Each structure stands twice: as structure tokens, then as C-alpha cells.
Amino acid sequence: MPSYIVTCKKDATDDQVAAAKKHAEDQGGKIGHEYKLIKGFSVSFPKDSVSTMESHEHVEAVEEDKEMKTQ
């Protein structure tokens, strides 16, 4: 299953972040890592299920978790 980084809105409360994680799990996702510097987490999803996260009210962005390079 592909892995994604879910970033919650900056003004999301801890309860709202927890609601987003529960939504991910309810949609078949498996939470990987919880981030402390940003309000977000990684989640592994079946490819066809990730679009449900993008429409969640407390989610700012969903992007595929992949290697980044700097110059």
C-alpha cells in the first residue's frame, strides 16, 4: 500500500487531528508516524481510498510520501 503524509489545518485542535486519524483508519488506512513539528501523520492507504482524506474538514493537504532531495 502506498504511504501518504496527511497535514491537518494549522488551527486544528488535538481532538480534530485525532478525528482525522480515525477517519483514515475507518477508510482502511494504517497510521504510521505521528509528527510533532506539524499537525499531521503518515498513513498507508489502498491507492483508491486516499481521496477520502483530501475532503476531510480538518485536513489541509495529502501528499504521497516519497524521498525528497535538496540541492
TrEMBL record:
Chain ranges of the Inhibitor I9 domain: 3-71
Any one GO MF annotation of this record: endopeptidase inhibitor activity
One biological process term in Gene Ontology: vacuole fusion, non-autophagic
Pfam families membership: Inhibitor_I9 (PF05922)
Superkingdom as given in the UniProt entry: Eukaryota
Family: Belongs to the protease inhibitor I9 family.
Name assigned to this protein: Uu.00g023860.m01.CDS01
Organism placement in taxonomy: Eukaryota, Fungi, Dikarya, Ascomycota, Pezizomycotina
